[in-house]
Design a protein that fits this description.
This protein has 356 residues and is an alpha+beta fold. It is built from nine helices and 17 strands.
């Protein structure tokens, strides 16, 4: 007989099993998950079949209709995608997710006026802003359009110093914090000149996903290896869509004497480094990737990768969401010899990767 403390849970399970509504919703969820997996695998035809099955189980879901239309468009059937959206949209109470999907489809097909009408409704409903719409590549044809001024505003990325130490002792570690606003696809951080400084880590704090214009926070941490007043920078952020933003040169004085009285040897400044979000896309946990002069090593969740023997130059990469690490990586110069350890496998043994 179940104990008293388990009785409420068993009653809840019994009620759930008896509710005929839950079975269709469970089937809808399974079909949707299969559809998303098929889209990721590059099979939009199968994805559309799965989304159709999900809609049969949950016909009132506007999101499932949007997914089915997206799969149809990805399968080179833009007319079918538009027919799906038109059938799902209730003109008296349109679902924002469907209007958004239809506006993108109109814009891709060149129907600018129709796309603009849907976007105007979205803004009137408070579901979108001109700035949030400007982050969508599908809507770039409407950005600063003479017939619809201000409807879609292309984001202009900015990179601003937030925290810069005025001075640091040689041999001490330093940290510089930057805010990158209106930068939806950070790719790499150009570091400019950094004589006498060693960059050790780059930390990226992702913004709240519900705020499309919230800034990224990028923190550079390193070691002052020589005394100098030469400026660092300008620092620049290169984005995946070809745009860029830059800071003014940052001046950070370094006092010539280290705490122990001996100056560390000079360091090699990396010049540029991929942001952690870019590194995760190129080298997921347990994998290797390349970008420019860098070899990227993705660590297992919660475990930073290491390389033996340690390379002369390396940068630890950390991606955080809501203050918690969600990705750890390591960037080393391409061609570095050695073996990387990227955490442990299911058997508890270290996962080792040979560097190419």
């Amino acid at each position: 007989m179940p104990s008293a403390k388990h009785t409420p849970l068993l009653l809840l399970a019994a009620v759930a099993c008896a509710d005929p509504v839950l079975d269709p919703l469970g089937a809808s969820l399974e079909a949707w998950q299969a559809g998303v997996a098929a889209m990721a695998a590059g099979d939009p035809a199968r994805a559309q079949q799965q989304f159709q099955a999900a809609r049969r189980s949950d016909p009132a879901s506007p999101s499932l209709c949007a997914w089915e239309a997206r799969a149809a468009a990805a399968g080179a059937d833009p007319g079918g995608a538009m027919a799906i959206l038109d059938a799902c949209i209730d003109p008296s109470a349109p679902a924002p997710v469907l209007l958004r999907e239809r506006a993108s489809a109109y814009a891709r097909s060149g129907a600018i006026d129709r796309a603009a009408r849907d976007l105007q409704v979205l803004i009137r409903l408070g579901a979108e802003t001109p700035r949030s719409l400007g982050a969508d590549p599908d809507l770039q044809a409407l950005a600063d359009h003479p017939s619809y001024p201000g409807l879609v505003l292309t984001a202009q990325p900015t990179l601003e110093p937030v925290l810069v130490p005025k001075a640091v002792l040689v041999g001490e570690r330093w940290a510089i914090e930057l805010a990158a606003a209106d930068a939806p696809s950070p790719l790499s951080l150009g570091l400019g000149a950094g004589d006498g400084l060693a960059l050790e880590s780059l930390i990226e704090d992702q913004p709240d996903p519900s705020d499309p214009i919230a800034p990224w926070r990028l923190t550079l941490r390193g070691l002052a290896r020589a005394g100098s007043t030469a400026p660092l920078g300008p620092l620049s952020l290169a984005l995946g869509d070809g745009r860029s933003a830059a800071t003014p040169a940052i001046s950070m004085a370094r006092m010539a004497l280290s705490p122990d009285g001996a100056a560390p040897p000079p360091s090699t400044w990396p010049g540029s480094v991929p942001t952690p979000s870019a590194a995760r896309a190129l080298a997921p946990p347990g994998q290797l990737g390349r970008t420019g002069a860098w070899l990227l090593i993705g660590g297992a969740p919660g475990q930073a990768p290491t390389v033996q023997p340690p390379p002369a130059v390396s940068v630890q990469l950390e991606l955080r969401a809501e203050g918690q690490p969600v990705y750890l990586g390591l960037a080393v110069p391409a061609g570095s010899p050695g073996e990387a350890t990227v955490g442990r496998g299911p058997d508890g043994q270290p996962i080792r990767l040979s560097l190419p």
